[in-house]
């Protein structure tokens, strides 16, 4: 039994990568730590359960990484995906710290493996968790428990008692035991974004949000973020920005995870419900572009689109959970997708006619492109002409939102007046918007979680003992 | 659709897993899965027999129950594996032995022991059966050596024949040509993987049994069991060679090779099965093929009885208990031999064959 009458040095709200890194680093620094995870034990860890890798800078190849990935290169990738919408000081700090995380996280029991078969050529930049995100999470929980961190599941925080930027206590509600006041010297908020809170999403997206699928846990409702912002913490990030990819429209509303995504865009064309193309499917290599397709689909009517390809490319990408929908003719396929057959035939005919001769190579920006259509397909354009014709219906799959709490390099929250909070820290998706103004590069969510989690825990412990 | 419901479920899971692949570093099953995009019955039986049931992929899976995708690879493959044993049984008439395996093995064991006791009683005077015999050839006062050698060789040869026929059926099912060129490299790799139980380790941290902590010691107990069994088997062979080549007759002194091998093996074959049985009963039910608990338990108990009766015979061989103990031991061993093709013993054979195939596939994929 956890003694909730005592005053903890550090209260961590949340139970994912950032929360556990914070809890472990605070405990290792000598603090007493309580972790409140709102989800039941099986669903503990929020989106971390669904992750598979982390992007860390390193100066040389390692046992599992095929080559160096310097801080500068990481920074340039971040600049590219965010279009410069990032806090440079904070981002460079995170990238620098990420180097040490590669080892630190192993000391916490997490094991690495080389990049998975069929993944998006991440072997040099991203370190994969052996057994995936839940294995990583299980390791962190084991370590935290062994160190003596107290952990409660189904532990919903319904209110925060904050005065002048100073955390005093949290109101805990449990299925058994009811409400309890939990006191702690410092707070680490690591409770994720609000992507599972459709009502909140609707404030910015309108009714379109009803058609979003949430890739992770239904528990990421942003309750803690909302409380913090309401109690004077400075907001950061565009509320419509998030990490969103195109996932199978047949996926469950929540928690479909990695297996609902599609990597086949570059091998075909993508049309909306009017059977019209709307974006260059071959703009850049997939790992650099997969994260824009969630937003692109979100902007289409009814938030649905269809990846269309033919039988020649089915083995070019990883097998999918849901089989492609097939038709012997374009018209038959259109019928099954409930698209206008004439419109789809027209789009494909025009596309096929625009395809220029070239040498196909999906690993480089090849010279297979279209000419004379808009939007063009600038690489990997090949005619769709070998039946059966195949399609995947896709919808926006929201991974996590970027609206968050502003922090400094200590992971300490900043208040609306710009002053650092006396004792409140934030880590993970709840503060990802500090680094990610928009866009995404694979594995960054975990980098943000581990780096700022570790820092937040360390700083909170220091704060608590002063 | 597949031949059985469990293969349908295995196919569903492999489709889920093949679009995830997070577990590929844990064992051989997932890399083998990744070499395929669709799964025939044979593919699924191959993967089922490749699985060592370490439980790591269940603990690590974000889609295991209560998630709606309900992914439970260890249990599904365990059931598929057990059903494959029955499907490969030779002769086919005996495939039903797997359905109520605990009962079948117990009956065969009881009959076998009874057979030896009555046999000894029938061919010997009462005084011989309960008499004290010492010195060379003491055992053979109860049963002539040649008769013993003949009976056990026949039982063993029968078992080997049935096992070979089963392997043949498995090999065909998984789509390998029967007269395949023996690939020494793949064979060596498989021998190492099997000898080390490379894949019974949860991907490096150890197996999962009661909960989500890798605290399981089944690998250790399996080593005790397997190497204990091997030492006992070696002891028998050395004894046979002594007999025919050196004309040295059992019982041998405690320091002599057959006794040393047999004693060490016997001790291993006590510790191992006890550990395995304990692990089996404490294992999370969600990972276990509960319908086959009888099969697993029966085999473990047979191994345990083999070693216990053997050690008892060693301890009391110079007393009046020797005769009954010898009958008991020989009865158990005989039953063990003839039921080998019809019980859990086959798991080792099919898994080894699956490992050979995996080694070959991997070599071909890596291009060497």
Task: Report what the structure shows.
The complex is a heterodimer of chains A (466) and B (368). With 466 residues, chain A is α/β, with parallel strands linked by helices. Chain A has helices at 17-28, 71-82, 88-107, 132-147, 198-205, 223-230, 286-289, 293-298, 330-337, 341-354, 444-465, and strands at residues 7-13, 33-36, 53-55, 112-113, 126-129, 150-152, 156-163, 166-174, 178-189, 213-214, 235-236, 242-248, 269-271, 305-310, 325-327, 389-401, 404-405, 412-414, 420-426. Chain A folds into two domains: 7-236 and 402-465, FAD/NAD(P)-binding domain, CATH 3.50.50.60; 244-397, Succinate dehydrogenase/fumarate reductase flavoprotein, catalytic domain (Flavocytochrome C3, Chain A, domain 1). In chain A, 28% of the residues lie in helices and 21% in strands. In chain A, a hairpin with a 5-residue loop joins strand 18 and strand 19 (420-426). By secondary structure, chain B is an all-alpha fold. Chain B folds into two domains: 5-88, no CATH class; 92-366, no CATH class. Chain B contains 14 helices and no strands. Chain B is elongated and about 70 Å long. The A-B interface holds A 42, 49-50, 52, 111, 113-114, 116-119, 128-135, 138, 142, 252, 255, 257-259, 315, 318-321 and B 15-16, 18-26, 31, 34, 37, 56-57, 59-63, 66-69, 203-205, 212-213.
In angstroms, what separates the terminal alpha carbons of chain B?
35 Å
Strand tally of chain B is: 0
Q: Give the overall form of chain A.
A: elongated
Overall number of structural domains of chain A:
2
Order of helices and strands of chain B: HHHHHHHHHHHHHH
N-to-C terminal Cα separation of chain A, in Å?
28 Å
Instruction: Please report the two chains with the greatest interface, counting residues with C-beta closer than 8 angstroms to the partner's C-beta.
Output: A-B, 31 and 30 residues
User: What can be said about the biggest beta sheet of chain B?
Assistant: none
What is the mean predicted local confidence, pLDDT of chain B?
92
Give the CATH architecture of the largest domain in chain A.
Answer: 3-Layer(bba) Sandwich
């Amino acid at each position: 039994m956890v003694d909730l009458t005592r005053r903890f040095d550090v209260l961590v709200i949340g139970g994912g990568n950032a929360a556990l890194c914070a809890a472990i680093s605070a405990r290792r620094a000598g603090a007493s730590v309580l972790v409140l995870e709102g989800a039941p034990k099986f669903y503990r860890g929020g989106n971390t359960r669904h992750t598979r890798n982390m992007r860390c800078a390193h100066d040389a190849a390692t046992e599992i990484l095929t080559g160096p990935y310097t801080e500068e290169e990481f920074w340039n990738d971040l600049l590219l995906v965010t279009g410069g919408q990032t806090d440079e000081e904070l981002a460079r700090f995170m990238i620098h710290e990420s180097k040490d995380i590669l080892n630190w996280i192993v000391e916490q029991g997490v094991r690495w493996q080389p990049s998975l078969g069929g993944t998006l050529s991440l072997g040099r930049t991203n370190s994969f968790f052996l057994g995936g995100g839940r294995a990583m999470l299980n390791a962190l929980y084991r370590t935290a428990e062994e160190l003596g961190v107290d952990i409660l599941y189904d532990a919903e925080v319904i209110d925060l008692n904050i005065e002048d930027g100073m955390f005093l206590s949290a109101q805990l509600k449990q299925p058994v035991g009811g409400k309890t006041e939990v006191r702690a010297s410092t707070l680490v908020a690591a409770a994720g974004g609000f992507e599972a809170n459709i009502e909140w999403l609707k404030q910015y997206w309108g009714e379109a949000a009803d058609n979003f699928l949430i890739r992770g846990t239904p528990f990421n409702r942003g309750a803690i973020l909302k409380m913090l912002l309401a109690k004077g913490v400075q907001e950061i990030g565009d509320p419509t920005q998030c990490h969103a990819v195109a996932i199978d429209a047949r996926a469950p509303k929540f928690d479909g995870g990695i297996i609902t995504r599609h990597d086949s865009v570059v091998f075909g064309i993508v049309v909306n419900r009017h059977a019209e193309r709307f974006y260059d499917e071959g703009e850049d290599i997939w790992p650099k572009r997969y994260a824009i397709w969630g937003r692109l689909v979100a902007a289409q009517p009814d938030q649905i689109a269809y990846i269309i390809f033919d039988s020649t490319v089915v083995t070019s990408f990883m097998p999918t959970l849901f089989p492609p929908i097939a038709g012997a003719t374009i018209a038959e396929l259109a019928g099954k997708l409930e698209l206008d057959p004439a419109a789809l035939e027209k789009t494909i005919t025009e596309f096929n006619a625009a395809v220029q001769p070239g040498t196909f190579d999906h690993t480089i920006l090849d010279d297979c492109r279209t000419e004379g259509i808009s939007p063009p397909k600038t690489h990997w354009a090949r005619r769709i002409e070998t039946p059966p014709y195949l399609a995947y219906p896709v919808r926006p799959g929201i991974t996590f939102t970027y609206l968050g709490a502003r922090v400094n390099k200590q992971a300490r929250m900043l208040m609306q007046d710009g002053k650092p909070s006396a004792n409140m820290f934030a880590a993970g998706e709840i503060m990802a918007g500090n680094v990610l103004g928009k866009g995404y590069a694979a594995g960054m969510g975990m980098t943000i979680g581990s780096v700022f989690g570790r820092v937040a825990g360390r700083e909170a412990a220091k704060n608590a003992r002063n | 659709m597949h031949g059985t419901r469990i293969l349908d479920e295995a196919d569903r899971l492999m489709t889920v897993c093949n679009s995830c692949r997070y577990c590929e570093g844990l064992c051989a099953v997932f890399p083998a899965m990744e070499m395929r995009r669709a799964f025939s019955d044979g593919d699924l039986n191959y993967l089922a027999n490749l699985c060592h049931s370490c439980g790591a992929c269940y603990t690590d899976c974000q889609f295991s129950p209560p998630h709606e995708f309900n992914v439970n690879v260890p249990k599904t493959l365990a059931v598929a594996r057990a059903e494959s044993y029955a499907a490969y049984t030779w002769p086919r008439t005996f495939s039903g032995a797997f359905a109520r395996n605990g009962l079948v093995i117990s009956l065969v064991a009881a009959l076998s022991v009874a057979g030896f006791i009555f046999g000894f009683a029938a061919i010997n005077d009462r005084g011989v059966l309960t008499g004290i015999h010492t010195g060379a050839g003491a055992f053979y006062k109860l049963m002539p050596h040649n008769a013993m050698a003949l009976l056990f060789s026949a039982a063993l040869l029968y078992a080997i024949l049935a096992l070979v026929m089963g392997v043949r059926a498995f090999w065909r099912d998984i789509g390998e040509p029967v007269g395949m060129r023996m690939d020494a490299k793949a064979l060596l790799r498989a021998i190492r993987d099997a000898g080390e139980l490379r894949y019974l380790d949860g991907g490096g941290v150890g197996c999962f049994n009661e909960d989500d902590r890798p605290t399981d010691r089944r690998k250790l107990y399996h080593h005790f069991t397997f190497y204990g069994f091997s030492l006992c088997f070696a002891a028998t062979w050395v004894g046979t060679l002594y007999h025919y080549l050196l004309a040295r007759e059992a019982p041998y002194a405690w320091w002599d090779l057959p006794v040393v091998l047999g004693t060490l093996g016997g001790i291993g074959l006590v510790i191992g099965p006890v550990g395995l049985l304990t692990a089996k009963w404490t294992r999370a039910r969600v990972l276990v093929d509960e319908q086959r608990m009888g099969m697993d338990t029966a085999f473990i108990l047979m191994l345990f009885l083999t070693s216990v009766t053997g050690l008892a015979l060693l301890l009391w061989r110079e007393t009046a208990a020797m005769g009954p103990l010898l009958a008991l031991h020989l009865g158990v061993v005989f039953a063990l031999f003839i039921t080998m093709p019809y019980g859990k013993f086959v798991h080792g054979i099919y898994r080894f064959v699956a490992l050979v195939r995996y080694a070959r596939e991997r070599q071909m994929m890596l291009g060497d």
